[in-house]
Amino acid sequence: MKQHLGRQSGVQNVEVSLIDGRVEIAPKEDGQIDPVQVLKATYDSGVTVAELDMTAQGKIVKDSSGNLGLQVAPNRSFAFAPNELSKGLESLADSQTVVTIRGQLYKKPAGKKKADPSAPLKLLILEVQKKE
Amino acid sequence: MNRKFVLLALLNMIVVPAAQAQIKHIEMRVEGMT
Asked: How far is Cα of residue A87 from the mean position of the Cα atoms in its chain?
Protein backbone atom coordinates (compact mmCIF):
# COMPACT_ATOMS: atom_id res chain seq x y z
CA MET A 1 0.00 0.00 0.00
CA LYS A 2 2.84 2.39 0.86
CA GLN A 3 4.33 2.07 -2.66
CA HIS A 4 0.86 2.35 -4.24
CA LEU A 5 0.11 5.59 -2.39
CA GLY A 6 3.61 6.93 -2.94
CA ARG A 7 3.01 6.76 -6.70
CA GLN A 8 -0.04 9.00 -6.51
CA SER A 9 0.25 12.48 -7.95
CA GLY A 10 1.32 15.10 -5.43
CA VAL A 11 2.42 12.66 -2.72
CA GLN A 12 5.76 13.52 -1.10
CA ASN A 13 5.97 10.88 1.61
CA VAL A 14 3.91 8.07 3.13
CA GLU A 15 4.36 6.78 6.67
CA VAL A 16 2.51 3.63 7.72
CA SER A 17 2.04 2.48 11.29
CA LEU A 18 1.05 -1.18 11.33
CA ILE A 19 0.40 -1.16 15.08
CA ASP A 20 -2.51 1.28 15.11
CA GLY A 21 -3.40 1.23 11.39
CA ARG A 22 -2.47 4.85 10.79
CA VAL A 23 -1.26 6.18 7.45
CA GLU A 24 0.27 9.66 7.30
CA ILE A 25 0.68 11.33 3.93
CA ALA A 26 2.82 14.40 3.38
CA PRO A 27 1.80 16.18 0.17
CA LYS A 28 4.22 17.88 -2.21
CA GLU A 29 3.94 21.65 -2.39
CA ASP A 30 2.77 21.44 -6.01
CA GLY A 31 -0.85 21.22 -4.88
CA GLN A 32 -1.50 18.18 -7.09
CA ILE A 33 -2.61 15.84 -4.33
CA ASP A 34 -6.22 14.73 -4.50
CA PRO A 35 -7.62 13.14 -1.30
CA VAL A 36 -10.31 11.37 -3.35
CA GLN A 37 -7.63 9.69 -5.47
CA VAL A 38 -5.73 8.79 -2.28
CA LEU A 39 -8.89 7.18 -0.92
CA LYS A 40 -9.46 5.23 -4.15
CA ALA A 41 -5.81 4.16 -4.32
CA THR A 42 -6.02 2.86 -0.75
CA TYR A 43 -9.14 0.83 -1.59
CA ASP A 44 -7.41 -0.46 -4.74
CA SER A 45 -4.55 -1.74 -2.62
CA GLY A 46 -7.06 -3.95 -0.77
CA VAL A 47 -7.27 -1.98 2.46
CA THR A 48 -10.46 -0.59 4.00
CA VAL A 49 -10.32 3.08 4.97
CA ALA A 50 -12.09 3.72 8.28
CA GLU A 51 -11.43 7.46 8.37
CA LEU A 52 -9.60 10.14 6.41
CA ASP A 53 -8.67 13.45 8.01
CA MET A 54 -6.84 16.30 6.38
CA THR A 55 -5.34 19.64 7.25
CA ALA A 56 -5.66 22.20 4.51
CA GLN A 57 -5.50 25.91 4.00
CA GLY A 58 -7.45 27.94 1.53
CA LYS A 59 -10.24 30.41 1.05
CA ILE A 60 -13.85 29.98 2.09
CA VAL A 61 -16.10 29.90 -0.95
CA LYS A 62 -19.82 29.66 -1.48
CA ASP A 63 -21.19 27.67 -4.44
CA SER A 64 -24.25 28.51 -6.53
CA SER A 65 -26.49 26.58 -4.10
CA GLY A 66 -25.20 28.63 -1.17
CA ASN A 67 -23.13 25.78 0.32
CA LEU A 68 -19.86 26.77 1.98
CA GLY A 69 -16.60 25.07 1.15
CA LEU A 70 -12.82 25.33 1.33
CA GLN A 71 -10.98 26.09 -1.90
CA VAL A 72 -7.58 24.41 -1.71
CA ALA A 73 -6.58 24.94 -5.36
CA PRO A 74 -7.94 27.07 -8.21
CA ASN A 75 -9.92 24.08 -9.50
CA ARG A 76 -10.48 22.11 -6.29
CA SER A 77 -12.74 22.80 -3.34
CA PHE A 78 -14.43 20.72 -0.67
CA ALA A 79 -17.97 21.45 0.48
CA PHE A 80 -18.43 21.57 4.24
CA ALA A 81 -20.67 19.22 6.16
CA PRO A 82 -22.64 21.83 8.14
CA ASN A 83 -21.75 22.17 11.83
CA GLU A 84 -21.16 24.97 14.34
CA LEU A 85 -17.60 25.55 13.09
CA SER A 86 -18.69 25.86 9.46
CA LYS A 87 -21.39 28.36 10.47
CA GLY A 88 -18.69 30.47 12.13
CA LEU A 89 -16.87 30.74 8.78
CA GLU A 90 -19.86 32.02 6.84
CA SER A 91 -18.76 35.66 7.18
CA LEU A 92 -15.48 34.80 5.42
CA ALA A 93 -17.18 33.44 2.29
CA ASP A 94 -15.62 34.77 -0.91
CA SER A 95 -13.21 36.99 1.04
CA GLN A 96 -9.41 36.97 0.68
CA THR A 97 -8.96 35.48 4.16
CA VAL A 98 -6.91 32.27 4.15
CA VAL A 99 -8.04 29.74 6.73
CA THR A 100 -6.28 26.61 7.97
CA ILE A 101 -8.71 23.82 8.78
CA ARG A 102 -8.38 20.30 10.14
CA GLY A 103 -11.34 18.25 9.10
CA GLN A 104 -12.71 14.80 8.45
CA LEU A 105 -13.29 14.12 4.77
CA TYR A 106 -14.37 10.50 5.05
CA LYS A 107 -15.62 8.11 7.68
CA LYS A 108 -16.68 4.55 6.99
CA PRO A 109 -20.43 4.22 7.56
CA ALA A 110 -21.33 2.10 10.56
CA GLY A 111 -22.57 -1.37 9.74
CA LYS A 112 -21.29 -1.44 6.18
CA LYS A 113 -18.12 -3.20 5.28
CA LYS A 114 -17.26 -0.99 2.33
CA ALA A 115 -18.58 2.39 1.23
CA ASP A 116 -18.64 3.79 -2.27
CA PRO A 117 -15.35 5.71 -2.59
CA SER A 118 -16.67 7.60 -5.61
CA ALA A 119 -19.47 9.28 -3.61
CA PRO A 120 -18.98 13.04 -3.16
CA LEU A 121 -17.10 13.80 0.03
CA LYS A 122 -17.94 16.55 2.47
CA LEU A 123 -15.45 18.12 4.84
CA LEU A 124 -16.55 18.00 8.47
CA ILE A 125 -14.58 20.72 10.21
CA LEU A 126 -12.94 19.47 13.42
CA GLU A 127 -10.79 22.51 14.12
CA VAL A 128 -10.18 25.96 12.66
CA GLN A 129 -6.46 26.41 13.26
CA LYS A 130 -5.67 29.78 11.74
CA LYS A 131 -7.24 32.74 9.95
CA GLU A 132 -4.94 35.08 8.01
CA MET B 1 5.66 52.69 -15.62
CA ASN B 2 2.61 53.39 -13.48
CA ARG B 3 0.58 50.93 -15.54
CA LYS B 4 3.20 48.20 -15.04
CA PHE B 5 3.06 48.76 -11.29
CA VAL B 6 -0.72 48.43 -11.25
CA LEU B 7 -0.53 45.24 -13.33
CA LEU B 8 2.09 43.79 -10.97
CA ALA B 9 -0.04 44.65 -7.94
CA LEU B 10 -3.08 42.99 -9.54
CA LEU B 11 -1.08 39.89 -10.44
CA ASN B 12 0.20 39.68 -6.87
CA MET B 13 -3.36 39.81 -5.51
CA ILE B 14 -4.35 36.91 -7.77
CA VAL B 15 -1.27 34.70 -7.42
CA VAL B 16 -0.46 34.99 -3.69
CA PRO B 17 -3.77 33.65 -2.25
CA ALA B 18 -3.73 30.80 -4.76
CA ALA B 19 -0.19 29.88 -3.71
CA GLN B 20 -1.21 29.89 -0.06
CA ALA B 21 -4.04 27.46 -0.66
CA GLN B 22 -2.90 23.87 -0.27
CA ILE B 23 -3.49 20.55 1.43
CA LYS B 24 -0.87 20.32 4.16
CA HIS B 25 -1.41 16.88 5.61
CA ILE B 26 -3.56 13.77 5.19
CA GLU B 27 -4.04 11.12 7.82
CA MET B 28 -6.00 7.89 7.42
CA ARG B 29 -7.07 5.16 9.78
CA VAL B 30 -7.24 1.89 7.89
CA GLU B 31 -8.44 -1.65 8.55
CA GLY B 32 -7.25 -4.95 7.13
CA MET B 33 -3.64 -3.93 6.73
CA THR B 34 -1.09 -6.71 7.17
From this structure: 19
Mean local confidence (pLDDT), A74-87: 92
Do A19 and A71 lie in one domain? The reply is no
The complex's ipTM? Answer: 0.85
Domain of residue A32, residue span = 1-47
- Cβ distance B28 to A72 less than 8 Å, yes or no, reads no
pTM: 0.79
pLDDT at B16: 47
CB B27 within 8 A of CB A23: yes
CATH code: domain of residue A99: 2.40.50
Q: Same domain for A37 and A61?
A: no
In terms of Cα–Cα distance, which of A104, A1, A102, A103 is closest to A48?
Answer: A1
Does any CB of chain A come closer than 8 Å to the CB of residue B3?
no
Phi, psi of A16 (to 5 degrees): -115, 130
Same domain? A10 vs A69: no
Q: Are residues A101 and A117 in the same domain?
A: yes
A127 and B CB contact within 8 Å: no
> Which among B27, B19, B15, B26 has a CA at the least distance from the CA of A73?
B19
Overall number of domains in chain A: 2
